[in-house]
Design a protein that fits this description.
Number of helices: 18
Structural class: alpha+beta
Largest sheet: 5 strands, antiparallel
Number of domains: 5
Amino acid sequence: MDEQSVIECLEKGICFFPNLRKKLKVSKDVLLKRLGEMVANKQLYHARSTNCYYLLKHGKLDLKEAGYGFIMVEGETEDYYVPKGKTKGAYDQDDVSFFVTEDAFHKKCAEIVAVLKRNRTTMIGKYKEVTRKGKTKAYVVSTHPKFPVKAEVIGGKPAEVGMIVYGKLQYTASHVMISIEEVLGHKDDPGIEIAQIALEYGFVTEFNEDVIEEIAGISDVVLDEQKIGRTDYTDLLTITIDGDDSKDFDDAVWVRKNQDGTFDLGVFIADVSEYVKEGHPLDQAALARGTSVYLADRVLPMLPHKLSNGICSLNEGVERLVLACIMKLSKEGNLLDYEITAGFISSKHRMTYRNVNAILDGDGLLREKYADIVPMLETMIELSAIIRRRREKKGGIEFDIPEYSFSLNEDGSPLSIELRVRKQAEKMIEDFMLQANETVAYHMNIFHLPCVYRVHEKPDQEKLRDVFAVIGGMGITLKQTKNDIHPKQVQDALIKIADSPYQTILSQLLLRSMMKARYAPECLGHYGLAMQYYCHFTSPIRRYPDLMVHRLIKKTFLHPDRLEEDLKKYQAILGTIADENSISERKAIECERAVNDMLYAWYMESLIGQIYQGVITSMVSFGMFVTLENGVEGLVSLSSLPGYFTFDKEKMCYYSKERVYHLGQRVSVAVASANRLSRKVDFRLPDEREIYENSSIE
């Protein structure tokens, strides 16, 4: 009897020892010996109380505040639900071993056997002291809502009671201990809430002494010797176009329309790799951070300001080193030819999205002020429309999900929430960057050069068809085929729902059904953009993969004699770099989302009892989430609904004898509670009297 036979039985749900023996037709002693070996090798778990055997799995725990959680297993699309009380002392983000069983309602669930690795190595919390029997002990109580830990202080920097501190964790079988690394300040200090969240996710603002020492030796201006062998693009009418508040400019653009109707598009990207040398402290710091993190009132940069805002930034009127991707495009937007070179430019204007949009809308004063570039801007818009039409024709998906920004008071509290509007200029720059990224990825692939690609794999077709079914249930007819759903079909679905009152929620459902984009050393294509070749090339100041792509490009044409040696070297490490940067990106997204959730909750704290109109944007077994027009999302719990409601997962609705609530429905909600510490907002459904009184006041 081999192990595989046992595994096959267990996978079929045959786990009770007598049943296993009967199925395998072996003696008791033989089976016990085999099972004992597999238990010892940690392949199986033996539940002695029931005399059942289970296959052991390994995964990462996502623990919720309520005490239940989900275990994510690499390579598997579905997560495993862990009921409250079955976590075996595991904390959020721990690597755990577990087995799959059934609860009292015969639903599959996971039960944790052991913690394999504590992945939270740092913690931020409030410093406290407790005196018992004349002895005083210090503790740090975590402020993270998903990590409710009280850690004993065992050293580090001194702190005062009530201070917010950051430290490194140590674990024993029964205790959590902390060494204080940094004292952030008092809990009421301006901006400390955002600083807390940033540190919770491992993002720090300070660079170590080795990095500071290295950047001290970097020149603030481009040196003559750095220009040798580079193409001089300073005569071109290059411009940067960014937000009003932007301080780091890593891309400049130039466009020309030729007499034959073709276009020349130049995308010039800051040559960060000239200053961030491979393996040096600055490079190690950039790799560890992986990305810049953009929070409500601050940026946590991947690179020190001397580089990001200085020598690497394509500031107006000064020479800067670049990698240039110059493309010739047909009238239809097809790539006819391209050139990727190392060069230097001098940006002629620092333009903002606001001013460019105003110029394109006919603002007379601005058109006069920037008369030298107005014709080029108009050509840019023409080319942008062509590139976009080509991408749409191929099936590129455009998710128009609302984004919001915060205006903060001096104390860091949210003053207002504003909807971000993407106009012509924003979309134009996006089109040009996508074109450059696609061209560079094409170049790296056809020449079989090592590269860090940006990949977006096909979504789970069952999940996508489920969303299509929900859309169909709302009376919107979509074309489906028996084959896999092509990006063009998703795009067509987005066009069909564009005029629907359910546009936002249905777009979000479609987005959630997609796989997460990631970095990989293999060219696997980008489903969402409908591109066969794609990488990140255009933002090396704020993304490490872009910096890596620059480095790889330069290796190929600056040192062709070492190409074979470099190929072997990078093929061995690119997988790890890609994985690390995918993780860094997800952490940054989670950090940004946590800050936004905190600010949403903070904004609503003063509005308890107020009534708003919202849309039901998500439905789960324990309640429905409602999103207001300002982007605030809150939970209406099932227990708060008047009467007895049943949840229909297939139709995505709650129903009782009197009422039905369904996905996309507009409802009135009252703010029940809001807490910036837990980063949560709860709503309730007001009665008719409250709604009448509220409308009367208005």
